[in-house]
Amino acid sequence: MRYVSSTSRVIVSDLLGSDLHFYRGTEGPATGFTLGHELLGEIVEVGKGIKRFKQGDLVIAPFSLSCGMFLSFPASR
């Protein structure tokens, strides 16, 4: 594991309108694709550089991902 990464176990995820295109087969890969985003998970492992979270914490991963440390990322990212 990287110094500033963590590993989470997904507890639940939801399907939204943007997922329906994949579900209906009108866009995206036909197989090998897991639908859903905006998930709830539990941290199972943290890197040494992670200070804000610990094993067992519940976390969310919204559609717009951010580490919460910066107001915005440069347009090139």
Secondary structure topology:
Layout: E1 6-14, H1 17-24, E2 37-46, E3 58-61
Antiparallel strand pairs: 1-2, 2-3
Description of the molecule:
Strands 1-2-3 form a three-stranded antiparallel sheet, with no helix packed on it. About 0% of the residues are buried. It has one domain. With about 80 residues, the chain is mainly β.
Précis, in short:
By secondary structure, the protein is mainly β.
Biggest sheet: strands side by side, in what order? 1-2-3
Strands, total number: 3
Q: Which structural category fits the helices and strands?
A: mainly beta
Q: Note the run of SSEs as H and E.
A: EHEE
- The low-confidence runs, each spanning 5 or more residues with pLDDT under 50, are none
Mean pLDDT: 75
Termini distance?
22 Å
Portion of residues within helices: 10-25%
Q: Compute the number of structural domains.
A: 1
Q: How is the main sheet built? A: 3 strands, antiparallel
* Shape annotation: elongated
The number of helices is 1
Range of strand content: 25-35%
C-alpha-based Rg, rounded: 15 Å
Name a few traits of the molecule.
77 residues, mainly beta, elongated
